[in-house]
Amino acid sequence: MYVCICNGITDQDIRAAAEAGCSSLPELTMRTGVGACCGTCIETAGALLEACRPSSPPAATTALVVLSRAA
């Protein structure tokens, strides 16, 4: 379904951004353009991002911590 009509952003676009590590509404706007025009979609987009956000950080973050400890 379309969440942001102005920029053609769907719920799948927001889910994909969340899975890619997007962690805030401003970041979602920068990545997708959602909410950058009229702003009507902001509440829905924020709720969807919150619901889709992974509970743990991406694996790359964990690997970075391990590498920095070894150095």
Distance separating the two termini: 47 Å
- Cα Rg: 14 Å
- At the fold tier of CATH, the topology name is Arc Repressor Mutant, subunit A
Summed over residues and divided by their number, the pLDDT gives a mean of 84
Query: Class in CATH?
Result: Mainly Alpha
Q: Based on Cα principal axes, name the global outline.
A: globular
Number of strands: 2
Biggest sheet, open or closed, and with what strands and sense?
2 strands, antiparallel
Question: Which features characterize this protein?
Answer:
two-stranded antiparallel ribbon, 2 strands, 71 residues, single chain, mainly alpha, transport, Arc Repressor Mutant, subunit A
Structural commentary:
The chain contains 4 helices and 2 strands. The relative contact order is 0.19. The longest helix has 12 residues, at 59-70. Helix 1 (11-19) packs across helix 3. It has 71 residues and is mainly alpha-helical. The mean pLDDT is 84. The chain starts with a strand and ends with a helix. This is Bacterioferritin-associated ferredoxin.
Short note summarizing the structure:
This protein has helices at 11-19, 25-32, 42-52, 59-70, and strands at 2-4, 9-10. The chain has 71 residues and is mainly alpha-helical.
Give the topology, please.
Layout: E1 2-4, E2 9-10, H1 11-19, H2 25-32, H3 42-52, H4 59-70
Antiparallel strand pairs: 1-2
